[in-house]
Design a protein that fits this description.
12 helices; homodimer; DNA-binding; six-stranded mixed beta sheet; alpha/beta
Chain lengths: 343, 343
Amino acid sequence: MTNRKEVAKLAGVSEATVSRVLNGIGPMKESTRQRVLQAAKQLNYELNAVASSFARGRSGNLGVVLPHVPKVHLFSTYYFSELLGGIGEAVHSGGYGLLLLFRDPTVVYDYVSLYRTQRVDACIILGSSALETEKTAVHRLADERLPYCVMDQRFDHPQLSIVAADHEQGSYDAVKHLIERGYRKIGFLNGAPQYSNSEDRMAGYRKALKEAGIAEDDTRVYQGNYSRTSGKKAASQVYRDLARLDAVFVSNDRMAIGLMQGLRELGCRLPDDLKIVAYDNSDAASFTEPSLTTVKVPFYEMGRLAADRLLKQLAERDRNGASAEPIREKLRTELIIRQSSGN
Amino acid sequence: MTNRKEVAKLAGVSEATVSRVLNGIGPMKESTRQRVLQAAKQLNYELNAVASSFARGRSGNLGVVLPHVPKVHLFSTYYFSELLGGIGEAVHSGGYGLLLLFRDPTVVYDYVSLYRTQRVDACIILGSSALETEKTAVHRLADERLPYCVMDQRFDHPQLSIVAADHEQGSYDAVKHLIERGYRKIGFLNGAPQYSNSEDRMAGYRKALKEAGIAEDDTRVYQGNYSRTSGKKAASQVYRDLARLDAVFVSNDRMAIGLMQGLRELGCRLPDDLKIVAYDNSDAASFTEPSLTTVKVPFYEMGRLAADRLLKQLAERDRNGASAEPIREKLRTELIIRQSSGN
DNA sequence: TTGTAGGCGTTATCAG
DNA sequence: CTGATAACGCCTACAA
């Protein structure tokens, strides 16, 4: 492995000059620059990223923490893949590395350790939940004023860094759409309760009902876990309650797809027998039969935004040592009307 | 940032001993071990990964090179997300880091540079094509005997490291299935030609026709690029040729979905008017209407296999300096029969 | 504009 | 079983 010393020798300059040229730092004579570049090329030399990181005390990586979800191919999920794509774009164009960090389900995760071991300069936490251990772990990050961002999970504390979508509003819009079309017996198939996500949807659902003067009815609320399978499982309950339901609001497209499959197998005709509004606007939403009326969430943009902000914080910190202000962003959703809601 | 020296002092041992304890290397007295562990915990000390990498001369990362595909959210693609998931699983359980490397479309990529800069110890190349520049870049990796693996792209040279699926066989099976059901006018909507992938499918298609004594007819071959949009575009041509077609074999599910959407908009009834066999067995295949008969490809396993092999090579190399044997694997596909082929 | 030199936190080799 | 010590390759004041 050819190193800086050899290049310096060949170019007839000091090692420091080699570094300056390759990092484009400080003023230098063009002729020197050329000589160094020439020598580097001739020797096939490039900066050793690990050594640079070491000397600089920064890894140059942004970490993305991924949850462990049993039996699910995480990346093949619209939610995660879009978030990751957005993050990737920002990280790439910011010149950082993107390090994927897989959570081990058996271990209490210590985010701070990622920084202590210097594997990342900042990190984005996906699939975070409201579990107590999780909450303390995130608080620890905030206490240490480390650059981090939690994705789409609300905590009560206003000083935590979070990029999220406004799921209460999104859900409200979805349910209101059904109400406006004249449906009043509206069920709700929600996802796993440990995400604030799910609570927010519930809040939006309730708000819309209340506003329309429709009494809530817990027996119309079904519980899934965002998987297609859970949607399919819910089908039998929904089918049983069909007489008491005009429509169902479903917390994501995957569950809605499962639900529709299940209902159809039970002999339902959709959307005639039941109107459905789903959530996410994944690719699949446009080609199910009937196509899904659904709430579009800008996951890609959320990922990009979070990463952009973090990189800016890092740059700022390197410039003047400023410690990070919390990132607080809540993005808007948009209702996409298709056939499943009876149009 | 607390470092080894402080821990050594607190534990009353040398720095070397601290390292040995934390790396679990060599024999040591249990009491010493405990003292060191105790001190480390008390000081909140953990090994600095960057410093370790530096001293060891290995980054501890496996890189995954991602192609740039304009206007496509790469991760939201069944193909890439499954591959990535498999790679992730292997890398994670192997204790390595997973570094995502985004190709810049404007730059000729030099894979060797990834190793020279020490950003990765090994890498997996996704979305590789048969372009000349790509071929030389990969050959360079092989010449340098670096640990790498190309995913699902065949090159003529038998010494290159590749994990692939047997797409010729898969395509053959698909077309044969149609022939066995009595269809003889079989079209083919293929993906972008710069992937060996696509050639192989073509070969399988031809082989099946030939074996059944069906004359080839180039006017029944349509060109897409694996995107849904391209499938939808092809719909008008296919529709025009409908009288000369019993069935179409489509190179992936996404295009098939686009094709079906397009055909339906033109007034086709599926599968009555046209039988379709697709490729990939993505999640969507089971909930399109009609559901897709398709060729299942073990992308996840392919990713895992490639990563596993590379990690083994790295371990081997660290143990005895052995330089890597090329990885050569071709995995089997499986035909999944659903409704779109007329069942 | 360029050179000198100290330091970054480990690993690994070699003694003891 | 443990300690001392020389790398590792680069960055960055500071000096010239």
